[in-house]
Amino acid sequence: MTSRLENLRRGLLPARSPGPAVALLGPGISLRPGRVHEATGPARRSFALLAARATEGPVLWIQPAWTAERLNPDGFHALAAPGRFLFAWPRRAEDALWTMEEALRSGLVPLVIADLQAPPPLTPVRRLQLAAEAGSKAGGPPLGLLLVPGDGGAAGVESRWHMTPAHTAEATAWRLERRRARLDPPGTWLVRRERQRFRAQRLAAPAETPPAAPSPAPVPG
């Protein structure tokens, strides 16, 4: 029992990456393999497809069976070949996390994505991190990605990203934020799609508002 608790505790600590970070859009926007990350916001699935675009080999996409939304190959074939995707539709919420854990532990699937309806609790995320570490030793370092609506909030993830559409009449674009990461600072980018290429422009952080100058003391009359 003590050994088990110790393993879970280690799952919360930063682990050395078993390989180079997977660059989604250049070195600034990357995901460390052998770990589990979180993508949030209304364009979180677009972020997951960018991760698929940056990797090779099969992609396992896990989604509860009762959800109505499904990926349409006609909508993402320009980013990644639909033939790379394997889909699993478990009937229970806990089975989605179990499926992800087993896939990560095997080390046979380079990218494992769980499309969830709510952030998972801390203990399952710890188990996923330990499974990803085990998969790094069993095969190639797997990359785990949790898709959570809204602002997310899964504790224990390696990094948390938030992606929202920022399309205009002239361009297809998204606003991408790195809101949390163990080893990297927060950052914000404007991602534009130009034909089959993506360009990311880092946005400056909002300038701090200087404190208001104190009012001059009244001069005695």
Overall outline: globular
Gyration radius, to the nearest Å? 20 Å
C-alpha termini separation: 79 Å
Q: Give the % helix.
A: 10-25%
Report the portion of residues in β strands: 25-35%
CATH H-level superfamily of the domain at 2-69 and 79-160: P-loop containing nucleotide triphosphate hydrolases
- What is the H/E order? HEEEHEHEHEHEEEEE
The CATH class of the domain at 2-69 and 79-160 turns out to be Alpha Beta
Please specify the SSE layout and strand pairing.
Elements: H1 2-10, E1 22-23, E2 30-31, E3 36-40, H2 44-53, E4 59-62, H3 73-76, E5 85-88, H4 93-106, E6 111-115, H5 122-138, E7 143-148, E8 159-165, E9 172-181, E10 187-194, E11 197-203
Parallel strand pairs: 3-7, 3-8, 4-5, 4-6, 6-7
Antiparallel strand pairs: 1-2, 8-9, 9-10, 10-11
Helix pairs in contact: 1-5, 4-5
What does this 3D model show about the protein?
By secondary structure, the chain is of the alpha/beta class. The chain has a domain at 2-69 and 79-160: P-loop containing nucleotide triphosphate hydrolases (Rossmann fold). It is built from five helices and eleven strands; from the N terminus they run αβββαβαβαβαβββββ. The protein has a nine-stranded mixed sheet with strand order 5-4-6-7-3-8-9-10-11, sandwiched between helices. Strands 1-2 form a two-stranded antiparallel sheet. A hairpin with a 5-residue loop joins strand 9 (172-181) and strand 10. Helix 1 packs across helix 5 (122-138). The radius of gyration is 20 Å and the shape is globular. 34% of the residues are buried.
